[in-house]
């Protein structure tokens, strides 16, 4: 399978059209709420949500005063985001297509990663890490939620923390202390925990 074919083996568009989206929490992610409460998101910052789907965090970032870009392969998901912004009288940049091929005009302050890394084929992970280093300015932050699961296959594909340390090496990323990495069980995916971690691009 080529890299290009790897990017769309799963029919996300049909899943959105059929409303078959068990990864959706139907509310803001508790990790997002925790980080927002801790003032980790600052007005004026530029944030990307890759593989944003219909996540409510885009509008919440805009309401918090950040400049938001959401990108997704699914036209249905992007149309939903567009409606949310219009209904709220808010603004956000929405990109339909392969986010791994996207490049911001100005480097970003922040990437908010929620069930995207676990959604792409593991063969694409290095391309994603490389894109993250291109997108973020030095000192920019990756707010990551690493999906934990024991079963093989996916999506979602498991993101064990030792594998994440290899993917995001200390030469390019500053990791938080172990006790700052917090588990957030997913209510609709059998309580599978996502590990919330903020990595800083060197
Ligand atoms: C599991 S869903 C998560 C959606 C959203 N982040 C959420 O938390 O509800 C994965 C999303 O990634 C999108 N996606 C997968 N590969 C992509 C790619 N190469 N470029 C952009 N979006 C992609 C899918 O269309 C889907 O919306």
What can be said about this structure in brief?
With 202 residues, the chain is α/β, with parallel strands linked by helices.
General description of the model:
The protein is built from seven helices and eight strands. It has 202 residues and is α/β, with parallel strands linked by helices. The protein has one domain: 3-Layer(aba) Sandwich (Rossmann fold), CATH 3.40.50.150. Strands 1, 2, 3, 4, 5, 6, 7 and 8 form an eight-stranded mixed β-sheet that branches. Strand 4 (108-114), helix 6 and strand 5 (136-147) form a beta-alpha-beta unit. The longest helix has 14 residues, at 75-88. Mean pLDDT is 94; it is low at 1-5. It binds S-adenosylmethionine. S-adenosylmethionine is lined by residues 7, 12, 23-24, 51-55, 71-74, 77, 98-100, 114-116, 119-120.
């Amino acid at each position: 399978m080529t890299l290009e074919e790897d990017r769309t083996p799963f029919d996300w568009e049909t899943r959105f059209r059929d409303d078959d989206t068990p990864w959706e929490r139907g509310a803001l992610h508790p990790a997002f709420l925790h980080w927002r409460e801790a003032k980790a998101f600052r007005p004026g910052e530029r944030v990307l949500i890759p593989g944003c789907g219909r996540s409510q965090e885009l509008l919440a970032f805009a309401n918090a005063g950040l400049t938001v870009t959401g990108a997704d392969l699914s036209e249905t998901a992007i149309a939903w985001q567009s409606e949310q912004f219009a209904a709220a009288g808010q603004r956000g940049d929405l990109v339909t297509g392969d986010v791994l091929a996207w490049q911001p005009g100005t480097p970003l302050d922040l990437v908010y990663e929620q069930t995207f890394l676990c959604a792409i084929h593991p063969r694409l992970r290095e391309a994603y890490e490389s894109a993250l280093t291109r997108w973020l300015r030095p000192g920019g932050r990756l707010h990551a939620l690493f999906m934990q699961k024991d079963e093989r296959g996916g999506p979602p594909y498991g993101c064990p923390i030792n594998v994440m340390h290899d993917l995001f090496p200390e030469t390019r990323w500053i990791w938080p202390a172990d006790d700052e990495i917090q588990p957030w069980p997913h209510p609709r995916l059998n309580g599978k925990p996502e590990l919330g971690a903020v990595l800083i691009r060197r």
